[in-house]
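Hey,
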Amino acid sequence: MLHDDVETLRRSSAAWRLLRADTAPLVLSFLGTLFVEENVRAIPETELVARLDDHLFAIHRSAGTLGAEARYPRTPQAYVDHWAHPEQGWLRAWYPPGSAEPHYDATPAVEQAVRWVATLRGRAFVGTESRLNTVFELLRQLAVGTQTDPAERLRELEERRSRIDEEIAQVRAGRVDVLDAAAQRDRYQQLSQTAADLLSDFREVEANFRTLDRGLRERITGWDGAKGELLEEVVRSRSAIAESDQGRSFHAFYDFLLDRRRQEEFAALVDQVQALDAISTDDPRPAPEHRRLRRIHYDWLDAGERTQATVRTLSEQLRRFLDDQVWLENRRVMDILRGVEAKALAARDVAAAPGAATPPGMAIDAVAPEVVLPTERPLFAPRPSARVDSDHVEEGDEDFEVAALYDQVHVDPERLARTVRHALVSLGRGTAAVSLGDVVRDAPLEHGLAELVTYLSLDDPRFVVVHDEEATDEVRWLGDGPPAVGHADAPPDEIAAPDPVVRVARLPRVTFATRPAPGGPVLEDTRSPEETA
């Protein structure tokens, strides 16, 4: 260990700051009991302050320092705020979804400090055999698990089978090797310590996940490349978190915890071990370590679920963070578009001023280039001439309706345009707009549907025709009923006149509006006296 590394740890480590603090006994005793021994993973602020108040009262009463001479004179709320300050880093505060009250949890620094202080206690028994066996077993697993030669793997399995066969033969012969009391206590001590260390590691795993997520957010915030590359980086980083050594180890351990059969087997083995004479006679009363070990697998499951929930929350927050980034980008695009619109309106006002020249770059010949390639022009294809044979013409003898041949009408568009201009003057009442329905009510249709269609196709320099597809109007007029059927050779005066019927046409609303051209002609009644009458 280098001197500079130790100096850096002394300045930056939150666990070191905790051990150097004047209130270290208070912090370690209270936070260690609450978050380490009781395995509390989240506690509301009001409950945390209340429990700290009770803890301070018990300390001051036992020391006889109640009142102004108390060893810890600050309020419980002040201590909690001080411990959660980033400069200390002993408590992590956050707001759960749907809660307006902050919740607290201990940081990995508190776990490290509590474990280190616990190692300072003297131990009546220090076992080494079980740890040595663990070292050899881990070495054997590494050596065998990384062996790619099938012959070597087969040789190792055969040796293991030989040892098992020898042990089976000894048991059948009545020779059973049993661990002595010292070996039992040695292994039980290592079991308890490993189980407690495993539980305390969950906070560090959760903190490392948060660190990885924080680094990913920093890269997203400072990203200046393409959005596709950003999404690829996000997916790769999230996969890196899940595929990291820590992530794979945690998920494998969590899958082990979810196996109900393994949980039942673990509980049965713990009960069997704690019932041994060497373990139970060491302390006739159920020590806190014994009680905690009986339910340590439930604490593992709670801590693992807490870490899984943290990963899910981080993923959801990351998704919302990306959505916010996209929203900000869209807002920036809208700001740019509004700026372009404002400049375009300003340029329009400048161009509309009398005597003002068009600003350069504000006029274009077309909105898009028109490319016409010679190869796009089709080749000439002569039309075949139609041959008419008039030598064999036969006269037809079937009856058909011939009234339509004599009932040809012509609609004058100029007359309809004068009618619209008159309606704009008389019916518009200064609004410079009149609907087609008002025009037809004022001047009924004389030629039915043909005249109505001509209204829709009017093109006059003094007004425009506006079509509103979202509204519907009805236009009514009197038209001829179905014509009487007669012989084709019958004269028209012998055919009875049909009765008039009301015709109704439903069409999108049509409005005639005066053109807003400056200096244009003033609409006036241009109809002749005969038309007005």
